[in-house]
Amino acid sequence: MSVATPYFDQLFAGNDDPWAFRQRWYERRKRALTLALLTRPRYASVFEPGCANGELSFELAPRCDRLLCCDTASAAVALARSRLLGFAHAQVQQGRLPEQWPTGEFELIVLSELCYYLDADDLRHLIDRALNSLTANGQVLACHWRPAIEGCPQTAEQVHGLLHERLAMPLVATHHEPDFLLDLWSRDGTSVATLEGLR
User: Fold this and answer.
1) Where would you find the membrane-spanning parts of this chain (predicted)?
2) What does the pLDDT read at residue 10?
3) What is the per-residue pLDDT across 71-100, written as a single tens digit (0 to 9) for each?
4) Is 166 within a domain?
5) pLDDT in tens, 121-176
6) CATH number, residue 32
7) What is this structure's pTM?
8) Is residue 36 in a domain?
9) What's the total number of domains in the chain?
10) Using one digit for the tens of pLDDT, what is the confidence trace for 102-120?
11) Is the pLDDT of residue 11 over 80?
């Protein structure tokens, strides 16, 4: 069974940064690596489900023309909206995924520290929704903590394995450490150097 919304509501009760995204060097470094893995300098449209308090969202915003974020916890949505106030092209919605997947097409979908909260059925549904909303040259980026998390139905390895199987797209960039997995799949598997005429 997927982790229910009250779990996240409780995390944000009286705490605007329950995972210490702002304080921990681990988190700041991981965000930098996440952004560095992207193979394009800018994207037309980005969707970040499970945006929490908007720390990664804040760094994705300058890299796109349109940013849509969502979270299931109302407190997280309020915090992310506040974090993104300076970006007129950014929007934050409250929604439970995969059921309330947004309409529209996205060139990049960022699944950061989200998918291990979903059971296998919900994750399969989420991946299908992601595929249906990707542009013809769309990309999916996934980043997940490797150690098992109590109460989570899946591990990072299970999540990225299922993503790779169901996305059935070229894996164009990857960075794995003992602490986390970071992978980028793209419908266009052309390398950055090739796109810039270097190969």
Assistant:
1) none
2) 77
3) 999 988 999 999 999 999 999 999 999 999
4) yes
5) 999 999 999 999 999 999 999 999 999 888 899 999 999 999 999 999 999 999 99
6) 3.40.50.150
7) 0.94
8) yes
9) 1
10) 999 999 999 999 999 999 9
11) no
Using CA atoms, how far residue 196 sits from 33, 104, 174, in Å, is 22, 29, 20
Tell whether 7 is covered by a domain.
no
Question: For residues 45 and 66, is the Cβ–Cβ distance under 8 A?
Answer: yes
Domain that holds residue 152: 25-196
* Distance between CA atoms of residues 157 and 119, nearest Å: 13
**Under 8 Å CB-to-CB from 101, ≥6 apart: which residues?**
95, 126, 129, 133
| Phi, psi for residue 198 in degrees, rounded to 5 | -90, -10
Amino acid at 146: R
- Give the β-pairing of 171-176 and 134-145: unpaired
Task: Determine, yes or no, domain membership for 13.
Answer: no
Give helix 74-83 / helix 5-12 axis angle, nearest 10°: 60
